[in-house]
Design goal:
By secondary structure, this protein is an alpha+beta fold. The chain has one domain. It is 25% helix and 31% strand. A three-stranded antiparallel beta sheet has the order 2-1-3. The N and C termini lie far apart (51 Å). The relative contact order is 0.30.
């Protein structure tokens, strides 16, 4: 198994305009656990403002998937129109 640590860089706190960057990967039977263990330390290293805009995510990859081909999808889409 391969687990990728992905960093979603977003332009604002709504996380509607994000770019996904693979930052690290682990291989082996406990790859996902190692990835998840890294997230709290990395998140704590971000400033408060960046914690609201950016997000670390662990994703399990199969042998056929290519992470560079993935497109970042917003986790939450919210639009507000005011007059």
């Amino acid at each position: 198994m391969t687990a990728l640590l992905l960093l979603y860089l977003c332009t604002d706190a709504t996380r509607t305009n994000c770019q996904m960057l693979p930052t690290q990967y682990w291989q082996g039977s406990n790859a996902y656990d190692q990835c998840m263990a890294a997230i709290p330390r990395l998140t704590n290293a971000l400033t408060t403002q960046n914690r609201q805009r950016h997000e670390f995510v662990c994703e399990i990859q199969t042998d056929t998937a290519h992470p560079a081909e993935h497109q970042a999808q917003p986790a939450f889409i919210h639009q507000s129109f005011r007059m």
